[in-house]
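Researcher: We plan to redesign the surface later, but first we want a full-length starting point. C-alpha cells attached.
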C-alpha cells in the first residue's frame, strides 16, 4: 500500500473474479434507485463484517476489492458524502482502510467518538478515565494469561477481548470472566459483539454520529450498512426515508438485509450506477 496515495487501499487475499454473482432483493434494488436520485445523500458503512469479511486476527482485516473504490467513486459525485463508521479506533481504521489523508471519505472511529471531520480525531481522557482504562487493561491481560489464544485489542479509550476461532469452552470461559471484569469495574460501556467483549471508558453512539454528519452536510437521506450490535443504534436512529441494510443473520431494526461483503459491493455498485457514476 502506498500511504501517500488514498486510492491504493492495500493488499487483500480476495480476487474479484472469485466472487459469486449476486442478485439483490427487488425491494432493495428499488430502494437504492429511490435514494440515488436525491440531491444530497450520505452513504456510510461499517468496516468489519461489512466491507471486510470477519477474520480471527483483527489486525489482518481488509476490505474486499471494489468496496472502498466504490465509496471513493461515490464520494466524487455531486452532493454525495461518504463515510466509514467503525468501532475501531480512528488510527487503526485509517491504517486498515488506507483512508488516511483521503479528502472526501470521512472516517468515524470508536463507535462514533472519533472522526476525521472534526476535532475529535484524538481522544483526551480525564485522569479518572485513564486510571479506569489502565485497570481494565490489567484485568483483561489476566484473563488472557489464564486463556492463551485469546486476543486483546487496545484502543485509546477502551480494550477488547477477542475469542473468534478459539475452542468454544475457552471462548465461553474467557468471555464470562471479561463480563465479570466489566460488571466489577463498571466502565462507561460494555459491549458484547461478535466474539468480542469490549469495554470503553467513553460512551459513543454510531446513530448520533451519523445524524450529526448528515445534518452537517444537509443530506436528505442516509444509506447505512452494518452487521453488529452498535450498528443497531444507527438503524434505530435513522428514519423510514433512510436506507438501512443489515449484513448477515440476526435480529435487526434495518429495513433490508444482505448476506455478506459481496452483496455489500453489489449495493454500492448499484448505487453508484444509479447515481450516475461509473
Ligand atoms: O461496530 P463495529 O465497527 O462492527 O465494531 C465491532 C468490533 O469490530 C471488530 O471486531 C470484529 O471484527 C474482527 C476482525 O474481523 C473479528 O475478529 C471480531 O470477532 C469481530 O467482532 C473490532 O476488532 C472490534 O474492536 C470492534 O468492537
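Model: Full-length starting sequence:
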Amino acid at each position: 500500500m502506498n500511504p501517500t496515495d488514498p486510492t491504493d487501499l492495500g493488499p487483500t487475499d480476495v480476487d474479484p473474479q472469485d466472487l459469486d454473482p449476486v442478485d439483490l432483493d427487488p425491494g432493495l434494488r428499488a430502494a437504492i434507485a429511490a435514494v440515488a436520485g436525491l440531491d444530497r445523500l450520505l452513504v456510510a458503512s461499517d468496516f468489519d463484517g461489512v466491507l471486510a469479511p470477519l477474520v480471527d486476527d483483527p489486525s489482518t482485516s481488509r476490505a474486499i476489492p471494489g468496496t472502498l473504490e466504490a465509496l471513493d467513486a461515490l464520494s466524487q459525485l455531486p452532493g454525495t458524502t461518504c463515510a466509514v463508521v467503525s468501532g475501531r479506533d480512528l488510527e487503526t481504521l485509517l491504517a486498515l482502510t488506507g483512508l488516511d489523508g483521503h479528502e472526501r471519505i470521512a472516517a468515524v472511529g470508536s463507535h462514533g467518538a472519533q472522526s476525521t471531520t472534526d476535532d475529535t480525531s484524538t481522544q483526551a481522557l480525564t485522569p479518572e478515565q485513564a486510571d479506569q482504562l489502565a485497570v481494565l487493561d490489567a484485568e483483561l491481560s489476566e484473563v488472557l494469561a489464564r486463556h492463551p489464544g485469546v486476543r486483546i485489542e487496545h484502543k485509546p479509550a477502551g480494550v477488547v477481548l477477542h475469542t473468534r476461532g478459539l475452542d468454544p469452552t475457552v471462548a465461553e470461559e474467557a468471555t464470562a470472566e471479561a463480563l465479570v471484569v466489566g460488571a466489577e469495574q463498571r466502565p462507561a460501556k460494555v459491549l458484547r459483539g461478535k466474539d468480542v467483549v469490549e469495554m470503553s471508558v467513553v460512551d459513543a453512539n454510531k446513530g448520533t454520529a451519523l445524524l450529526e454528519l448528515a445534518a452537517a452536510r444537509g443530506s436528505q437521506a442516509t444509506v447505512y450498512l452494518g452487521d453488529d450490535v452498535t450498528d443497531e443504534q444507527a438503524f434505530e436512529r435513522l428514519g423510514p426515508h433512510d436506507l438501512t441494510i443489515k449484513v448477515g443473520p440476526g435480529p435487526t431494526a434495518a429495513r433490508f438485509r444482505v448476506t455478506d461483503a459481496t452483496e455489500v459491493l453489489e449495493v454500492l455498485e448499484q448505487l453508484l450506477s444509479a447515481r450516475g457514476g461509473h
